[in-house]
Amino acid sequence: MALDSNKHEGASSTTPDQVDRQQVPNGSSDDRAKRHPRWTRHETFVLIEGKKVVENAVQKGRSRSSSALGSDHFEPKWDLVSSYCKQRGVSREPVQCRKRWSNLLVDFKKIRNWESQIKGAAESFWVMRNDVRKERKLPGFFDREVRWVRK
Hints:
The protein is mainly α. It has one domain. 52% of the residues lie in helices and 0% in strands. It has helices at 2-6, 16-22, 41-59, 77-87, 94-117, 130-135, 144-150. The longest helix is centred in the C-terminal third of the chain and has 24 residues, at 94-117. Residues 1-25 and 63-67 have low confidence and may be disordered.
């Protein structure tokens, strides 16, 4: 009988914990997976290196993954990048790798565009405070070392 009273929506047996999960600030359900941890600097460098390795293998005309990637069967690009990262201690899924790369690229392009239009070194992205960057719709933070690795 307890089952019958709980199967109706809005039953008074909802625990505070269940209410917290249901009421998320943006109005969506919190049933989806929790947010992944932020990418560390090390993870980002491994991702960049992995993407380079995979793209070099593809440019050399390899339709199969190379021995450097530790696999002898064909895999989509981001699966290969994810495998490369995992072999180096960075446990990120292919979708996470693709999204992180995409976000890096968007930020990099914004910075590159800004830097091409500035008139003096004082306006450079690299010397701006974070709040000024945000006002100018630039990334609040972008690791300068990532900039050099990207080139």
